[in-house]
Amino acid sequence: MSLPNSLSNSQVTLYTGPNCHLCEQAKALLYPLLTERGLRLVEVNVQTDAELQKKYAIRIPVVALANGQEKGWPFTAAQIGRLLDGAD
């Protein structure tokens, strides 16, 4: 599976897991922010890949940008906004 540095700059990856209520909260926070910036959210379930599961299992949800920057939960819309601004 490709890691964040191979992703397009027009998308943001959210590493998630099954039955993750924090992941649902993260998506609710991210969708409006990304929509206003014209970015697409790509959700990746870490349970589908052993390497991702090892790296992210206890940290989800994690937002990852194409440039390799990451922000784990908890995060606010303002924090993600600043992360995105630094990525431009």
Short description:
This protein is an alpha+beta fold and 88 residues long. It contains three helices and four strands.
Task: Describe the secondary-structure layout.
Elements lengths: L10 E6 L4 H17 L2 E6 L4 H7 L5 E3 L5 E3 L4 H11 L1
Parallel strand pairs: 1-2
Antiparallel strand pairs: 1-3, 3-4
What structural keywords apply?
88 residues; alpha+beta; Glutaredoxin; 4-stranded mixed β-sheet; 3 helices; globular; disordered N terminus
Structure in words:
With 88 residues, the chain is an alpha+beta fold. It has one domain: Glutaredoxin, CATH 3.40.30. The protein has 3 helices and 4 strands, in the order βαβαββα. The radius of gyration is 12 Å and the shape is globular.
- State mean pLDDT (0 to 100 scale): 89
The level 1 CATH classification is: Alpha Beta
Which geometry do the CA atoms define? globular
Reported for the largest beta sheet, the result is:
4 strands, mixed
| Proportion of beta-strand residues | 15-25%
Q: What is the radius of gyration? A: 12 Å
The second-level CATH architecture is 3-Layer(aba) Sandwich
Give the N-terminus to C-terminus distance in angstroms: 25 Å
**Number of separate domains:** 1
